[in-house]
Amino acid sequence: MEGNSPTILENSVNDSGLKTPLYEEHVALGAAFTDFGGWQMPVRYSSDLAEHAAVRSAAGIFDISHMAEFFITGAEAAAFLDQALVGVASEISDGRAKYSLIVNSDGGIIDDLIVYRFEADRFLIIANAGNRAAVSTALRERVAGFECELLDRSDEFALLAIQGPRAVEILQRLTSAPLDSLKYYSIFEGEVNGVHAYLARTGYTGEDGFEILLAAENASALWRELLSVGEPEGIIPAGYACRDTLRLEAGMPLYGNELGLDTTPFDAGFARVVRLDHEFVGAPALKTLADQPLNKKLVGLVGEGRRAARAHYELFDSESATSPVGEITTGALSPTLGYPIAMAYVQAHLAEPGTSLWADVRGSRQPMTVVSLPFYKRAK
C-alpha cells in the first residue's frame, strides 16, 4: 500500500501541502519533511539507518494519518463490496481484514487497500492518500442500488502505526485490549490511552505491530504517550525514508511504483487476491487476461557490492545488450541485509529465480539476480 514515492525536502519545515494532526509534533522533534501524495510527511527525524534499525530490533512509531478511511454500513454493505472489489468481502469474518484491490473496467489497478469487517453490516476500507479521490469516485459510482451507506471520514481521524518486535508490548501498556490474542489482519474496537480507537494488527514494514485509528484531536496525546512509555524499549519516531526501505525488504508494493493503472493484479503477482468466481467491476477483463500469458512480471532482484539500482533504472539480459528487458520500480541498499535489493518489472520469460540480469546504474552495468520475494521475513 501507500502510494506515491517521496520527494525529500531539505528544509526541516515547509508550509505548503496538507498537514496531518501530528504535524506540529514532527516539527517539535526536528523532522525533515517530504511531499507524499500532496501531504507534508516526516521523512526522517535523525538517521534513516537508525530509524530502520529501531523498527527491526525494537519499535518505531509512524504517522500515517494521510491515509483515507471509508466506512460502509447497512444490510447490503458486504454485497456492495463484493461487487466493488476483486475479493469477496462477504467471506471476511467479523473482526478480521483482507488485503484487496479496486480495479477499473480494464483490470488496471486504481488502488490497493485493506478491508476490515467489524460485524455483518459494518466495514472499513483504508486506502492510499494519493488515491483518495479516485477510490471515492469509484466506490460512489458502484454503491448505487445497494442498501448501505458509504462515508468518507478521512478528515475526522488520525492513524498511527507502531511497528517492531517490542511494539505489542509497548502498546499493551496503554490499552486493556487483548493484543496478544488478536491475529495478524484482525481489528479490535476499544480504548487506547483512555479514548476510543480501532486497533488493526496490520502494517507496512514486515514487522509485527498495530495501526491505530482514532479521532484526530486525540492523536498528539497518544503519540507522546507511546514515545514516553516505550522509551525503555528503544521506541523512536520513524519517517518515510526508512518506511520505504522496510517495505522494500518485506517485498510490499507501493502504488505509483509497483502498482498503477497500467498494471494488472496478475502482473504484480496478486492473482491470489483476485476471486474470479464472483462478479465485480473489472471481472470480465481480468477473466480474459487470466487466460493469456503475461508480458511482464514483478520480481525481486539482489545485486553485488554497495551501489543500489534505483527506480526507473533499466535492466538488460546481458552486459552488452542494447534493448532493455525491464525496469526497476524500487531499489535500495538494504540496511538489514547489507547488499543492494530491488523490485522490478521484467519480461515474463526472465522472471524465474536465478536468472541473471544487468542493471544500468548511471551508465555502468551492474549484475543482479532474480530472487523470490520477500527479501526479509521476521522471526516468529
The average pLDDT value, as a whole number, equals: 95
Cα separation of the termini: 23 Å
Q: Tell me which CATH architecture of the domain at 7-66 and 156-249 applies here.
A: 2-Layer Sandwich
Secondary-structure-derived class: alpha+beta
* Strand and helix order: EHEEHEEHEEEHEEHEEEHEHHEEEEEE
Low-confidence stretches: 4-14
**Beta-sheet strand percentage?**
25-35%
Shape from CA axes?
Answer: globular
Strand element count: 20
Q: Can you say what the CATH homologous superfamily of the domain at 7-66 and 156-249 is?
A: Probable tRNA modification gtpase trme, domain 1
| Largest sheet strand order | 11-12-13-10-4-14
**How many helices?**
8
Name the CATH class of the domain at 7-66 and 156-249: Alpha Beta
Helix content: 10-25%
CATH fold-level topology of the domain at 7-66 and 156-249: Gyrase A, domain 2
**If you compute it from the alpha carbons, what radius of gyration comes out, rounded to the nearest whole angstrom?**
21 Å
Taking the sheet with the most strands, its summary is: 6 strands, mixed
